[in-house]
Amino acid sequence: MAARTGGPAEHADAVVVGSGFGGSVAAYRLAEAGLSVVLLERGQPYPPGSFPRSPRQLGRAFWDPAAGLYGMYDVWSFKGCDSVVSAGLGGGSLIYANVLLRKDEHWFVDEQPMPGGGYESWPVSRADLDPHYDAVERMMGATPYPLDAAPFSDTPKTHAMQDAAAELGLRCELPPLAVSFAGRPGGAPGVGLPIAEPSYGNLHGRPRRTCKLCGECDIGCNEGAKNSLDHNYLSAAAHHGADVRTAREVKAIRPRPGGGYEVDYVHHADLTVRRKARQQPVETITCDRLILGAGTYGTTFLLLKSRTALPGLSGALGTRFSGNGDLLTFLLNARDRERVRPLDASRGPVITSAIRLPDEVDGVPGAGRGAYIEEGGYPGFTDWIVHSLDVGDAVERAVRFLWDRFVEFFKDAPDTNLSKEISDLIGDGALTVSSLPLLGMGRDTADGRLHLRDGRLAADWTTETSEELFTRVRKTMQGIADVLGAEYADNPMWFRKRIVTVHPLGGAPMADHPGRGVCDAFGEVHGFPGLYIADGAAMPGPVGPNPSLTIAAHADRMATRLLEGAGRGARTPARTTARDVPAPGGAGAAGVSVPVRTGAEPVGGSTGSPDRAGNGAAYAPEPGSRGGTRGPSAAASGRTPPPLAGSAGAAATSLSFTETMKGSVTYGVADPRAGAADPGREPLSFRLTITADDVDRFLAEPEHEARAEGWVDTAARGGRRPVLRGRFNLFAPAGGEDRRLMKYRLFFTDGEDRPRTLTGRKNVLHGPPTRIWPDTSTLYVRLLDGHVPEDAEADAAVVAAGVLHIELGDFARQLATFRTSGPDGAGKLLDFARFFAGELWEVYGPESDD
């Protein structure tokens, strides 16, 4: 690699690497809060009308700079799977199929054994992400396919999927799509209507039109109907002053002496030349916060290459890799009795419907791991299908490609980037299929590993431990084929048990401890304050449905946490959304490579979307986080990042930790001990993040009261329900020096939306030291009817009662979740520890002779 350019490096509050679902969301949130943000994207901008369409253009639409290719398709081949990802402004949103499904509530599993060994564990819950799902859906204009309105009602493939699901007894839905079917919010859907731009404009400065049902979503929407990230999050980020730079490929990262990070990148200024990385000059930018959003492969590859510069990085780097259960198959020659049944795969968006296969964690015994099956589509390129001029050498190119793949398969170090080879195969023409693809995805086994081999990214993954899932999905697809009178065909690669994934996940997974993951539940890398992972690399397992929405929600939650830690927690609730009333004339950002200045005052300190109140108070440490630890404390590591420019600088230091308790209650019983022993008892658990906003005040006040946020799981009585408001008292006075109480009061609603209060007490009584563990780990709880304050508890109706315990494994994880935010965090944590130990000594220590 060429030497770095001379002169002092430029500096920004935050640098964001990549512009996909993680990077775009992070760039917008931070820029909106008033930070100086530089976004570095390796690929090019693609305004409406610029996506390649001709055979010759598509033959060069791949990413391999060494071969002079700077297109948007980045194709990889690994052990067990092949993969297609994107390079371009908007990342994967340029070529994904628009689906915005939320991860199913019960699929956020905790310590679930995986086939082949190990466990899948998510340190976040659906309740944690729901407010952020809401925000992303609004920003991206999520809406289901308008099948009840003409001409959209004439979509044969959608009706076929509905018919098949009904016949098989499965649920079929029209999932939310990031596609504009109407010209403005609330408008009637129509084909080719002008789209009204939001108040922040559009960085491309080109007009957009609604969906024309051409099936071209996966090769870039030239109408601009697809609400890809460049049309919303990135345009809004540029509007708020973010410096969005394309053709900048990041090569290395490292901590900066004194705090923050340094980022090395190259500028692909000439897109016509073949150039090795070492031939390009390296530029450097420094930052206080570094957000990695380069995608599962890009982010993991960057961290693996930078491992020497990041000593102490978790040994979990590279683990938990999976393809999100992706499986591609085909339906051929569908017939209705003696007639051809038209499926017309090229009409409509690529995906319009989704069939859900239930999971055993949904309460369906023996179901196995859950999945989704969606219909696919492809462009209606009639000129491609009969492109007779290219038939002569198409076979030659295909044979050459297959021979090269055969040779590479037996080489010790295969070239894992296939972009150039696929480009050669397409050449000046293309081979297309006239069938209806079926796309499966689900909870496969995240036991793959990404690593370096001779400096190149390699992956070890196999379908073997996910065989049961793939068998179930293929069997269901065969059932769909039977219902539609079609022939079923596997992906030709399946004979070697290989899959093609467009949803690679993992590699830098989140976990509650650096021994289990690379980053915490908010995406901050363990041991490296200010370094965040915002993309699919942070996923600790398969999402199940299309993962884009979950990745974006994770990034939104991450940004909320980052801004709170920077003293930017107060923000006006009016968030910009993609569906704002358009500005007069549709004015927007003028370009991409330089920041767009509007003169508007930046909105500061967001807490997120306006409708988040009462949903677990997601703007302080969030419910169910379990993700506080960063390995060594920030102070001890010597890598504490400097405060962001313009931060509030409040003197208070907050402290939080997460606690999980499990047990049982009996309905109709008022005494906790009796409820715990009753044979009719039912399971109940909770996971809470306890937050003291001001450690000094918390320790000084006699009630030692803190906030409690998270969820209560009442199993058969409504499942996991968010805590609407909660409080926790640590060692509250109880009438004597030898007795303390730990008190809990949680307001929530049950499955029928009836208000409930969980009130609980841990009785800390004088006795031998052997009583410390049972006293501090046993909670006597009652469920009350209504939201009952403490002074009215005596007259409240008791719904149920029982006992909860902290299990030893959960307690070990709890110790790893303590985190502070604010000045002298390590000192405040020590103050808290001294207080805790002192109170225990007061109760359990030997009696004085005085």
From TrEMBL:
<keyword id="KW-0560">Oxidoreductase</keyword>
<dbReference type="Pfam" id="PF13450">
    <property type="entry name" value="NAD_binding_8"/>
</dbReference>
<keyword id="KW-1207">Sterol metabolism</keyword>
<dbReference type="InterPro" id="IPR036188">
    <property type="entry name" value="FAD/NAD-bd_sf"/>
</dbReference>
<keyword id="KW-0274">FAD</keyword>
<comment type="pathway">
    <text>Steroid metabolism; cholesterol degradation.</text>
</comment>
<feature type="domain" description="Glucose-methanol-choline oxidoreductase C-terminal">
    <location>
        <begin position="496"/>
        <end position="555"/>
    </location>
</feature>
<feature type="region of interest" description="Disordered">
    <location>
        <begin position="565"/>
        <end position="651"/>
    </location>
</feature>
<dbReference type="InterPro" id="IPR052542">
    <property type="entry name" value="Cholesterol_Oxidase"/>
</dbReference>
<feature type="compositionally biased region" description="Low complexity">
    <location>
        <begin position="569"/>
        <end position="596"/>
    </location>
</feature>
<comment type="similarity">
    <text>Belongs to the GMC oxidoreductase family.</text>
</comment>
<keyword id="KW-0413">Isomerase</keyword>
<keyword id="KW-0443">Lipid metabolism</keyword>
<dbReference type="InterPro" id="IPR007867">
    <property type="entry name" value="GMC_OxRtase_C"/>
</dbReference>
<keyword id="KW-0753">Steroid metabolism</keyword>
<keyword id="KW-0285">Flavoprotein</keyword>
<dbReference type="Pfam" id="PF05199">
    <property type="entry name" value="GMC_oxred_C"/>
</dbReference>
<protein>
    <recommendedName>
        <fullName>Cholesterol oxidase</fullName>
        <ecNumber>1.1.3.6</ecNumber>
        <ecNumber>5.3.3.1</ecNumber>
    </recommendedName>
</protein>
<keyword id="KW-0153">Cholesterol metabolism</keyword>
